[in-house]
From TrEMBL:
<comment type="pathway">
    <text>Purine metabolism; IMP biosynthesis via de novo pathway; N(2)-formyl-N(1)-(5-phospho-D-ribosyl)glycinamide from N(1)-(5-phospho-D-ribosyl)glycinamide (10-formyl THF route): step 1/1.</text>
</comment>
<dbReference type="InterPro" id="IPR004607">
    <property type="entry name" value="GART"/>
</dbReference>
<feature type="binding site">
    <location>
        <position position="67"/>
    </location>
    <ligand>
        <name>(6R)-10-formyltetrahydrofolate</name>
    </ligand>
</feature>
<dbReference type="InterPro" id="IPR001555">
    <property type="entry name" value="GART_AS"/>
</dbReference>
<dbReference type="InterPro" id="IPR036477">
    <property type="entry name" value="Formyl_transf_N_sf"/>
</dbReference>
<dbReference type="GO" id="GO:0004644">
    <property type="term" value="F:phosphoribosylglycinamide formyltransferase activity"/>
</dbReference>
<dbReference type="InterPro" id="IPR002376">
    <property type="entry name" value="Formyl_transf_N"/>
</dbReference>
<comment type="function">
    <text>Catalyzes the transfer of a formyl group from 10-formyltetrahydrofolate to 5-phospho-ribosyl-glycinamide (GAR), producing 5-phospho-ribosyl-N-formylglycinamide (FGAR) and tetrahydrofolate.</text>
</comment>
<comment type="similarity">
    <text>Belongs to the GART family.</text>
</comment>
<dbReference type="Pfam" id="PF00551">
    <property type="entry name" value="Formyl_trans_N"/>
</dbReference>
<feature type="binding site">
    <location>
        <begin position="14"/>
        <end position="16"/>
    </location>
    <ligand>
        <name>N(1)-(5-phospho-beta-D-ribosyl)glycinamide</name>
    </ligand>
</feature>
<dbReference type="GO" id="GO:0005829">
    <property type="term" value="C:cytosol"/>
</dbReference>
<keyword id="KW-0658">Purine biosynthesis</keyword>
<keyword id="KW-0808">Transferase</keyword>
<feature type="active site" description="Proton donor">
    <location>
        <position position="111"/>
    </location>
</feature>
<protein>
    <recommendedName>
        <fullName>Phosphoribosylglycinamide formyltransferase</fullName>
        <ecNumber>2.1.2.2</ecNumber>
    </recommendedName>
</protein>
<feature type="site" description="Raises pKa of active site His">
    <location>
        <position position="147"/>
    </location>
</feature>
Length: 198
């Protein structure tokens, strides 16, 4: 079996990245080839390196609002790692259509809501404010539109009375760490049927 080479983009501590990397140990159709961050201080870079995964960073700040110039630099280590798939795991930069189109059908993202609800930020607070009885997370293929693209999996959690956004976020994160590795495992084997976790 030839393993799919998986590059993972992060911006922070990388908890979802770690769940992906750890899931690819042993009998898995994917192998991590790079963990790449827009923040050289991202804690996830150290954790990835400790697991023997190659890391790189391209600080977005010197580029200001010039997203094209930032993405041109980001592409250098990314393309050098020759990924078959790119996973966004808490990567907090909006990518341009030009960048996304290079990896069309080969880029996944996890988003902390039951898409198409609550695209963008502050999803947990928005679900509570709306009085939703359930909330969760979605893994989807990345397209040029923000938090759009075909849904590959969802996991649901109950919104409890008196929940704070932080409490709800913590329960959703537990599900994210289950859902994303399962979707990636199936995707590496060519299975794009949606994964639904209770």
């Amino acid at each position: 079996m030839s393993h799919k080479r998986v590059a993972i983009l992060i911006s922070g501590g990388g908890s979802n990245m770690l769940s992906l990397v750890d899931s690819m140990i042993g009998d898995h159709a994917g192998r991590p080839c790079l963990v790449l961050s827009n923040d050289p201080e991202a804690g996830g870079l150290t954790k990835a390196a400790e697991r023997g995964v190659k890391t790189a960073s391209v600080d977005h700040r010197p580029f200001g609002k010039d997203r094209a110039a930032f993405e041109a630099e980001l592409l250098k280590p990314l393309l050098a790692s020759q990924p078959d798939l790119v996973c966004l795991a808490g990567f907090m930069r909006v990518l341009t259509g030009d960048f996304v189109s290079r990896f069309q059908g080969r880029m996944l993202n996890i988003h902390p809501s039951l898409l198409p609800k609550y695209k963008g930020l502050n999803t947990h607070a928005r679900a509570i404010e709306a009085g939703d009885s359930e909330h969760g997370c979605t893994v989807h293929e990345v397209t040029a539109a923000l938090d759009d693209g075909p849904v590959l999996g969802q996991a649901r959690v109950e919104v409890k009375a008196g929940d704070t956004p932080e409490e709800l976020a913590a329960r959703v994160l537990v599900q994210e760490h289950k859902l994303y590795p399962e979707v990636l495992r199936r995707y590496c084997m060519g299975n794009k049927d949606p994964v639904l976790l209770p």
